[in-house]
Design goal:
The structure holds 2 protein chains of 2 kinds. By secondary structure, chain A is of the alpha+beta class. In chain A, about 30% of the residues lie in helices and about 15% in strands. The longest helix of chain A is centred in the N-terminal third of the chain and has 16 residues. The radius of gyration of chain A is 20 Å and the shape is globular. Chain B is mostly beta strands. Chain B is globular and about 45 Å long. Chain B starts with 6 loop residues before the first strand and ends with a strand. Classes of the chains: A alpha+beta, B mainly beta.
Chain lengths: ~400, ~170
């Protein structure tokens, strides 16, 4: 047991969520109140008392653990956060696993609680931060190379990567449409989803452009809500309510020449039109001793539909440049595709809780309790957002 | 002159900046002057100072010759901090672009559509300069298109990159 690895040492034993709301509609609830409700739900799900939670592994700026622990009267043995933004969603569970494997804590909660009434990611890089009551980016020496040209939102920046992918590989809007339409089809059957009207091809192509080539339906929802995930040692997990969902691997990080990614835009040509995930994909497959052919269901962070295609390439489900034809062939459709993707409706159609709904869906798939169950699912891949590093992932198995 | 963070307030101007406002007229395709807020530090200031004079310069490692952009303290290739500046001819090609058609903030609505392009100067491949393509029919813009690069004066001492299809 001296091998230094996370492989098969820990398991997810509880998942919980609040309802999901459209951006701003969770008011007057508070962000930490939602976090607590998600944590209570995850503890119920695991069959553990809340006192069992002795660690927090957060990401994307997290929240104030000191106040949270004070509220709930929880003694804390581990409290850490992945740097960066939405790239760390899956990796926050890997951070929890690392805390457990190293003996620093026994049961670690990864939580995302999001309210966008005042802080809207869609305008994350807009100028005017000094005006009160807005969520915009203050001027910076780095931002000054982008912001004066009007780059103010992630959609616009990912549109630049997408255009390059189209140019380099011949990817077409029809391919993005297949991601949006298939994801919506999965959401239609879920009562938790905010978008339950079927999306037709015609509706996709008549939607307004946001940042060409990205139209409205290529962009994720802006929503409120919270999700919590509990990780503990795999032997201890066997005493919990559900069969353990074992963490086979988790990697986070990325290449220096990817760096800030969309807020740099200087990435080398061979990775510019990518998700930035290739190094962490390789690390995760190596740690898990598994590969893309072993995966039964993939929960890929879908802030923008073309990035699903780029992740399919970067994780090796198809060769780089062939993600468009791969989705066009029906491969990501539930239930009949070779690799059902985002069976919960994803960020695009269920809710955007910065990727944590993807972790929850992977757990439900491997328990066999998913609404859109992939029959006999044994291995799931979960990814964090294509973003500045660290980007991250999780490989889970029954 | 720099502030505590090493930032040069001299080039900093914006909605409440000291330099006053630029031309109030909104031009389709260009981000309104009053939204342009350039902050510099000691590594980036020479780029903006040259641009304010109408010249494009890119940082080049004095130790190994590697170009990098935007300017940063250390060469990503050899980690030297010996930085020189290469002036490049104002011609390049569009590496990628987007056409902004949705106003993320209301202040840009009257200027839409705005074409944002990443342009690699012919003499500095791999360096990507971000700016608006002025006076362009968005349908005519494509990856690989040749452009003239220009400095668009926003207000005294502040200019931003801008492109025209050739």
């Amino acid at each position: 047991m001296s091998e230094l690895t996370l492989r098969d040492r820990t398991a997810i034993v509880g998942v919980g969520a609040t309802p999901y709301w459209r951006r701003g509609e969770s008011r007057p609830r508070t962000t930490m109140e939602l976090a607590a409700q998600a944590l209570f739900a995850a503890c119920d799900d695991a069959g553990l008392p809340i006192e069992a939670v002795d660690g927090f592994a957060l990401y994307s700026m997290g929240f104030d653990v000191s106040l949270f622990a004070q509220w709930l009267n929880l003694d804390v043995r581990f409290s850490a956060m992945l740097t960066g933004g939405g790239g760390g969603s899956a990796g926050s569970v890997g951070l929890a696993a690392a805390a457990v494997v190293s003996g620093q804590a026994t049961c670690v909660a990864s939580i995302m609680s999001l309210q966008q009434a005042a802080s809207r990611f869609g305008a994350a890089f807009a100028p005017g931060a000094r005006r009160p009551g807005t969520y915009r980016a203050p001027p910076s020496p780095e931002g000054s190379f982008l912001q004066p040209a009007g780059l103010m939102s992630p959609a616009q920046m990912f549109a630049l990567l997408t255009r390059r992918h189209m140019h380099r590989y011949g990817t077409r809007r029809e391919h993005f449409a297949e991601v949006a339409v298939s994801t919506r089809a999965n959401a239609v059957r879920r009562t938790t989803a905010l978008m339950r009207e079927p999306l037709t091809h015609e509706a996709y192509f008549s939607a307004r452009m946001i940042a060409d080539p990205l139209c409205l339906y290529d962009c994720c929802l802006e929503t409120d809500g919270a999700v919590a995930v509990l990780t503990t040692r795999v032997d201890r997990a066997r005493d919990c309510r559900w069969p353990p969902v074992v963490i086979a691997a988790s990697a986070h990080g990325g290449a220096g020449r990817w760096g800030q990614g969309i807020t740099w835009l200087g990435m080398p040509d061979d990775s510019f039109a990518s998700s930035g995930h290739r190094p962490v994909a390789e690390a995760a497959w190596r740690m898990a001793g598994l590969g893309p052919d072993d995966v039964d269901v993939a929960l890929l962070y879908d802030h923008f539909s073309p990035l699903v295609i780029m992740q399919l390439e970067d994780y090796g489900f198809c060769p780089v440049g062939e993600g468009g034809p791969f989705v066009a062939d029906g491969n990501i459709r539930w239930p009949d595709g070779r690799l059902p993707v985002n069976t919960h409706g994803g960020n695009l159609s269920e809710a955007y809780i910065i990727g944590m709904t993807h972790v929850m869906e992977a757990v439900e798939q491997l328990r066999g309790t998913a609404v859109n169950q992939v029959e006999g699912a044994e291995v799931a891949l979960v990814t964090g957002g294509p973003a500045g590093i660290p980007v991250s992932n999780l490989v889970l198995h029954r | 002159m720099t502030d505590d963070a090493g930032r040069d307030p001299g080039l900093r101007a914006g909605p409440d900046g000291a330099d006053g406002r630029g031309d109030p007229e909104v031009r389709v395709g260009l981000v309104p002057d009053e939204l342009v807020d350039v902050m510099t530090d000691r590594w980036t200031a020479p780029y903006w100072e040259a641009l304010a004079e109408g010249r494009f310069v890119v940082p080049r490692c004095e130790a190994c010759g590697t170009l990098r952009f935007p300017p940063t303290p250390f060469c990503p290739s050899c980690r030297s901090d010996r930085l020189g500046w290469l002036e490049v001819a104002p011609r390049g090609r569009i590496y990628t672009f987007t056409v902004i058609r949705h106003a993320v903030i209301p202040e840009v609505a009257a200027a839409l559509p705005i074409v944002v392009a990443l342009v690699e100067p012919d003499e500095a491949p791999g360096c990507r300069i971000v700016g608006n393509v002025a006076d362009a029919d968005p349908e005519q813009v494509h990856v690989g298109a040749e452009v003239e690069m220009a400095a668009r004066r926003v207000r005294d001492g502040v200019a931003v990159p801008c492109f025209r299809l050739r």
